[in-house]
């Protein structure tokens, strides 16, 4: 039996289709996006509490409906780790070149027992740079790559574990992945891009910009790296609090409000 670990439900679904009914392989997915929020070692006793408490403080009412699912995934992960410690089996981790999967790769390695053999399948490398996320691959592509994972050398494994522990010690709330490296960044790292895109869309619309349109433009056109839409919305609300953006509607659901840049008149009011 080999356990295939992927990041995100979409990637897990595609990989399960690719696996078919093969009895020798199972798919386990990690849901928590460690790009943002307090970094915590997944083996620590308060891992779930720290991560979920933070999400509760930044999410709107709509996003908080996702938290029970996230908690369930975390609990399933801890239960699996307990079984793995008692009965080690080989593990294949699917991790493309993006911040979600690369932070996840490091955190997973840090949580695994040292006697578990690990291989890594990078779909960005396998697709010659075409795919930025495992979830972007079609099931038939994933099926063609099953069995091609590279065994992780002990030195590389230790380097990745230490890299995650460095990020935990830095205790930042945002991590970015560039030029093959992860680093802690200031929370405001994407704010300038958010404001620039809002300004452009506002000029085109000659008024309010729907949040769904704004986030989509940021994620799929303005940025060359896949990041969490929930982080972008969190920063939008912070820009509203700072008076850089103003809004109309309700902030409790993404589809219920629109924004535009504040003017001196808005600030005075």
From TrEMBL:
Protein origin, superkingdom: Bacteria
Listed InterPro entries: DUF1835, DUF3658
Domain DUF3658: 149-257
Pfam families membership: DUF1835, DUF3658
Domain DUF1835, first and last residues per copy: 3-113
Listed name of the protein: DUF1835 domain-containing protein
Lineage, uppermost ranks: Bacteria, Bacillati, Bacillota, Bacilli, Bacillales
């Amino acid at each position: 039996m080999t356990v295939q670990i992927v990041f995100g439900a979409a990637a897990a679904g595609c990989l399960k289709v690719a696996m078919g009914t093969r009895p020798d392989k199972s798919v386990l997915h990690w849901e928590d996006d460690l790009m943002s929020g307090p970094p915590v070692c997944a083996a620590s006793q308060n891992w779930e509490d720290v991560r979920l408490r933070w999400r509760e403080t930044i999410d709107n009412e709509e996003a908080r409906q996702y938290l029970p699912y996230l908690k369930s995934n975390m609990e399933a992960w801890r239960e699996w780790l307990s079984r793995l410690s008692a009965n080690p089996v080989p593990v294949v981790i699917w991790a493309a070149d993006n911040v979600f999967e690369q932070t996840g790769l490091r955190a997973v390695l840090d949580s695994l027992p040292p006697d578990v053999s690990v291989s890594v399948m990078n779909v960005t490398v396998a697709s010659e740079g075409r795919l930025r996320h495992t979830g972007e691959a079609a099931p038939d592509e994933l099926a063609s790559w099953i069995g091609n994972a590279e065994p992780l050398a002990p030195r590389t494994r230790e380097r990745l574990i230490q890299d995650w522990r460095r990020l935990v010690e830095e205790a930042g709330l945002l991590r970015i992945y560039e030029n093959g490296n992860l680093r802690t960044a200031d929370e405001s790292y994407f704010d300038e891009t958010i404001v620039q895109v809002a300004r452009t869309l506002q000029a085109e619309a000659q008024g309010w910009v729907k949040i769904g349109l704004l986030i989509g433009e940021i994620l799929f056109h303005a940025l060359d790296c896949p990041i969490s839409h929930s982080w972008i919305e969190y920063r939008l609300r912070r820009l509203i609090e700072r008076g850089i953006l103003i809004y109309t509607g309700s902030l409790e659901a993404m589809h219920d409000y629109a924004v535009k840049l504040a003017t001196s008149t808005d600030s005075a009011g």
